[in-house]
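Chain A, query sequence.
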Amino acid sequence: MDPVQPFYHVRHSLEFQAPVEEVFAHWTAFTGLPRYLDGVESVRELGHSRYLFELGGSNGRTFIWDAVITRLVPNQYLEWGSDSQSPIQCSGRARFRERAGSTRLDLEIEYGPASGRAAGEANLFLERSLPGYLAKGSHMMTDLIETGFAGL
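Chain A, predicted structure.
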């Protein structure tokens, strides 16, 4: 799957005081992402490395798309992309590096312009909300991995 032509591009790095195996296990438990990322309403496993993501937007509107895991190297690398028919096109990569008992996660996500009736609202939601949701979610995930408690 080719990376999308980016409408919006996010780079984010995190440092966890935990072994890479633990960080990778939490990060790849996709159905648990709503616990960390406020905008993610649900993630449902569809089988064959496919997941259905549902984001909550303003005015009660939701945005839904399929994502496919395109490459997975345990404890090192994860790559994904949206299904070509999805109204929101996205792709991303996560690199995991162990460093003296800690783990560095380098995350890169690209979103293409949304299509369909709610395209304008979806694009605005991604541009304005994604960085904040990712930052807050990163802190919650760090808390959970390092202390066993995801604080608010």
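The CA atoms of residues 86 and 136 lie 26 Å apart. The longest strand covers residues 62-73.
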